[in-house]
């Protein structure tokens, strides 16, 4: 398949498991997260996909997911580009807090607004709009041109950085994107035309998103 772009959210992290706001903090994968990454790589291999380059963030949970996927694909030496432009949304003062504790401190409604609005950031952190403002220029400058040259590209990143990409690829509105969750370790396979428009999209693994 030419013009192949595959997006994968990292497997479950230690802080996902503990219900903590993670953002730019750097916990590793749980055993379940590693298993999800192996399953992701296996599904890509079974479907016959190989890659020319992988992109990932500066955070270890995405890098480890990427490494496991490439191992499963038999491509452990694939060129990998790491950049913090693909990092998770920065949750600022919420980082490291239990989500239930945050609700007790600021109230259910306020925490819901910070988590689910498009353009209202938590204190000291980024909104989804802010996240998109760093992810999308990087995508358009570094990733998309390689896809359009016919390279097969894997992006292993985070729920919110990938939501920013999906919003553009799927042409979703602000109201639609705030309702979208991306499951951990479940590849989204895109085929793009020569202008970067989506010709096809499929999820290789059906997993509940949190």
UniProtKB/TrEMBL annotation:
<dbReference type="InterPro" id="IPR013078">
    <property type="entry name" value="His_Pase_superF_clade-1"/>
</dbReference>
<comment type="pathway">
    <text>Carbohydrate degradation; glycolysis; pyruvate from D-glyceraldehyde 3-phosphate: step 3/5.</text>
</comment>
<feature type="binding site">
    <location>
        <position position="61"/>
    </location>
    <ligand>
        <name>substrate</name>
    </ligand>
</feature>
<feature type="binding site">
    <location>
        <position position="99"/>
    </location>
    <ligand>
        <name>substrate</name>
    </ligand>
</feature>
<feature type="binding site">
    <location>
        <begin position="22"/>
        <end position="23"/>
    </location>
    <ligand>
        <name>substrate</name>
    </ligand>
</feature>
<dbReference type="InterPro" id="IPR029033">
    <property type="entry name" value="His_PPase_superfam"/>
</dbReference>
<feature type="binding site">
    <location>
        <begin position="88"/>
        <end position="91"/>
    </location>
    <ligand>
        <name>substrate</name>
    </ligand>
</feature>
<feature type="binding site">
    <location>
        <begin position="9"/>
        <end position="16"/>
    </location>
    <ligand>
        <name>substrate</name>
    </ligand>
</feature>
<keyword id="KW-0312">Gluconeogenesis</keyword>
<feature type="active site" description="Proton donor/acceptor">
    <location>
        <position position="88"/>
    </location>
</feature>
<feature type="binding site">
    <location>
        <begin position="159"/>
        <end position="160"/>
    </location>
    <ligand>
        <name>substrate</name>
    </ligand>
</feature>
<dbReference type="GO" id="GO:0004619">
    <property type="term" value="F:phosphoglycerate mutase activity"/>
</dbReference>
<comment type="similarity">
    <text>Belongs to the phosphoglycerate mutase family. BPG-dependent PGAM subfamily.</text>
</comment>
<dbReference type="GO" id="GO:0006094">
    <property type="term" value="P:gluconeogenesis"/>
</dbReference>
<protein>
    <recommendedName>
        <fullName>2,3-bisphosphoglycerate-dependent phosphoglycerate mutase</fullName>
        <ecNumber>5.4.2.11</ecNumber>
    </recommendedName>
</protein>
<comment type="subunit">
    <text>Homodimer.</text>
</comment>
<feature type="active site" description="Tele-phosphohistidine intermediate">
    <location>
        <position position="10"/>
    </location>
</feature>
<keyword id="KW-0413">Isomerase</keyword>
<comment type="function">
    <text>Catalyzes the interconversion of 2-phosphoglycerate and 3-phosphoglycerate.</text>
</comment>
<dbReference type="GO" id="GO:0006096">
    <property type="term" value="P:glycolytic process"/>
</dbReference>
<feature type="site" description="Transition state stabilizer">
    <location>
        <position position="158"/>
    </location>
</feature>
<feature type="binding site">
    <location>
        <begin position="115"/>
        <end position="116"/>
    </location>
    <ligand>
        <name>substrate</name>
    </ligand>
</feature>
<dbReference type="Pfam" id="PF00300">
    <property type="entry name" value="His_Phos_1"/>
</dbReference>
<dbReference type="InterPro" id="IPR005952">
    <property type="entry name" value="Phosphogly_mut1"/>
</dbReference>
<dbReference type="InterPro" id="IPR001345">
    <property type="entry name" value="PG/BPGM_mutase_AS"/>
</dbReference>
<keyword id="KW-0324">Glycolysis</keyword>
């Amino acid at each position: 398949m030419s013009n192949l772009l595959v997006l994968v959210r990292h497997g479950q992290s230690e802080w996902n498991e503990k219900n903590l706001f993670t953002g730019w903090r750097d916990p590793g994968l749980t055993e379940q997260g590693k298993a999800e990454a192996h399953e992701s790589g296996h599904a890509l291999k079974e479907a016959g996909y190989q890659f020319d380059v992988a992109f990932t963030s500066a955070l270890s949970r995405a890098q480890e997911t990427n490494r496991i996927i490439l191992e499963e694909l038999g491509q452990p030496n694939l060129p990998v580009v790491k950049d913090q432009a693909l990092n998770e949304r920065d949750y600022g003062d919420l980082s490291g807090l239990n989500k239930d504790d945050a609700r007790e401190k600021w109230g259910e409604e306020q925490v819901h607004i910070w988590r689910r609005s498009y353009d209202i950031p938590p204190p000291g952190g980024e909104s989804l709009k802010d996240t998109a403002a760093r992810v999308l220029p990087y995508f358009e400058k570094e990733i998309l041109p390689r896809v359009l040259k016919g390279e097969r590209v894997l992006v292993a990143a985070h729920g919110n950085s990938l939501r920013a990409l999906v919003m553009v690829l799927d042409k979703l509105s602000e109201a639609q994107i705030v309702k979208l969750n991306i499951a951990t370790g479940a590849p989204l396979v895109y085929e793009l035309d020569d202008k970067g428009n989506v010709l096809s999209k499929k999820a290789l693994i059906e997993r509940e998103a949190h």
